[in-house]
Amino acid sequence: MAAKEKEVKETPLMKQYNEIKRKYPDACLLFRVGDFYETFGDDAVRASKILGITLTKRGAGSATETALAGFPHHSINTYLPKLVKAGLRVAICDQLEDPKMTKSIVKRGVTELVTPGVSMNDEVLNSKSNNFLASVYFTSKSIGISFLDVSTGEFLTAQGNGEYIDKLLQNFNPSEILVQKNHKSNFKEEFGTDFHCFYLEDWIYKEDYAFETLTKHFQTVSLKGFGIEDLKEGIIASGAILYYLSETQHNRVQHITSIQRIAENAYVWMDRFTIRNLELYHSYNPNAVTLLDVIDRTLSPMGGRLLKRWLALPLKDANKIRSRHQVVAYLGENQEVLQKMQYQIKQISDLERLISKIAAGKVSPREMIYLKESLDAIIPMKVLALESSQEAVKVIGDSFHSCELLREKIKTTLNQEAPVAITKGNAIAKGINAELDELRAISTSGKEYLAGIEARESERTGITSLKISFNNVFGYYIEVRNTHKDKVPSEWIRKQTLVNAERYITEELKEYESKILGAEEKIQKIEVDLFEQLVAWVTTYIKPVQLNANLVAQLDCLCSFTQLAIENKYICPELDETFELEIKNGRHPVIEKQLPVGTPYIANDVFLDRETQQLIMITGPNMSGKSAILRQTALIVLLAQMGSFVPADSVRMGIVDKIFTRVGASDNISMGESTFMVEMNETASILNNLSDKSLVLLDEIGRGTSTYDGISIAWAIAEYLHEHPARPKTLFATHYHELNEMNELLPRIQNYNVSVKELKDSVLFIRKLVKGGSAHSFGIHVAKMAGMPQIVIQKAQKLLKKLEKDHSSDALNGIKSENEEMQMSFFNLDDPLLEEIKDEILSLDINSVTPVEALMKLNELKRMLTRK
Hints:
By secondary structure, the protein is of the alpha/beta class. It has 31 helices and 27 strands. The strands form 5 sheets. It has a 7-stranded mixed sheet, sandwiched between helices. The radius of gyration is 38 Å and the shape is elongated.
């Protein structure tokens, strides 16, 4: 009974809302009511928190009471991005008919579903980053993955093991990931819980369905032309993405013109730990500067996005790399050309996203003008490139599409000052549509038109006082004074008689009236129709515009590399066919930018090969710059293989195919693993994937466990790398100076140390890599510099001397006996300990000991006595 009563109480509006909400249970539904978008129930509670808007109640006190929060419809661009960035899927439900035209409730329906991974909204997107939607498909053998940026039309796919997919997810950093429902737990185990996931039904992930979806979209018979026909898992993942687009009401997607495979073998392999350790895009320290921050000198959104891609996927093909280097060298020598190119690039809007908006029918007249201006700016670039003496630049110039017809059509169809929205009017230029021009003339020059009729009729009839006016009862009329009544032509129709005048209407006035009153509405309709026709026509240019966008992006990245090289004195690396790496005076690209003004960066040489110096063992105190040398070596190789110049005096290198870094014990406790376990996992992954062109950088391996365990593990790993048939080039930084003994046993291990100058009671870091091992660690000096209490430093120095004297496996017992010795009877007069305690008290600097330290010292002496 209660249920029935409730049904009766449901208002027509809420009934309509509930029906639509049932179709989109997991989305936040923005329901258009009049001039507002309203949210109800749980959606309202969430939205009010995220947006900071007032939460009220609809039908307060009644049985149908429900939470309510809303905002004006024109503020959608302010509020929508906030909801999407908070990870919500937002269904926008609009009125599908004009409320004036219906007597019953207005028809409503969802016109768009915006999710973190599917958005065309400029406020949601970041101009220099792609907004990828990813899809992952699990099988027992391998995992398929696909990435799509709906805002640019880029569509990529790949497949491989968990480690490879994990690396891609780190690189592409998707905003949303689609996963099969029954593999929810697999995804979390394999890739953690940091991503926004959406779970799809398993039937969507089927091979024949995916194949059909893709071939139907691309209007092809097979996928051979895209080179992905053998990527079975990749195809299935890609099919699911296209399915999801149609589910989210994104049906106008002809800007997705192709799909590319991410060719695993074409790019340098870096595992996710390396990407993280080298701080390429993001850092765990909130204020840290990343490599991307330092090298990104791009001037266009397309260039910014491509640079990220180049950084994620450095090349292994020496010819392609050299081609990029040659362009950078050419632009560096011809700085006038560089400046002209940069000037043109700055004039170019986000071509990729503009053409995508056109495909989706979400473009404004003003954006159309931006498209034309951007294409105009490409012409001087094309001319500059074609005049260049550098072959690769010429090829780019030759490939640019002039899009002359397109530019001309937009120029003639739209006003240069076109509005932000077509409904604002005055978007279409004069001379395009005769009816539109006439209507505009009527609506703007009404007064003149009427004055014209007045003058003409007055002259024709000889009625000098004839006057045209308007009222709401019968519109426009001619008023004639009674004195001139006899001059009125027979075709005029009398409408009203006044005391001393008569009012008439004419056919011409009636016609004019209907024209002027309907003009505004008609103008808007004609403008909208003409604009839609233009948009449809422009969609035939999707491919040439996308090609131009890609060429601009490439030139932008190469100009960015040149700018970087000029500003920071980078040089062109020399690539050869050897397995060697020779860096003269290499610098760390990020650290050198952060030194105080006037402080020179201490550059270092590194030489690695597979015959004489395969593994460099670097010892030296913490803080001395061991990690910086390791990282800068990796970054120099990376920059070189991206096609950039590098921070050094000279670099000669063979192509590197894998870069592995294992830096310190980066805690992964949030994942429930111990520091040491994480370190061993990551190191095992390196040792199992070595190749003869690998570069391995190990920093402080074994630090996460006890000293002797740590030394043994570090020794065993170094030996394994030395004996491995691939002989990978390795830099091994450690503070276990015991490892210096390895070079006596293993010929290709060479000892180096980061030099340090010892002063009387402190230490100066010179940060220079020199041949030979370091004799001892400087941990105690560092502790002292850090302001450790004096009492701790003194105790540590004592224990160190004792350990160094014993230097045996009994060293730890030595620590124990040291403690015991210090706690013998104070009254044992012939005991040398008395001397020691006397020294202990005398060596205390009373002026610098804090009260707490003094009490602790007293306490220690007291404890020794009481244990007697």
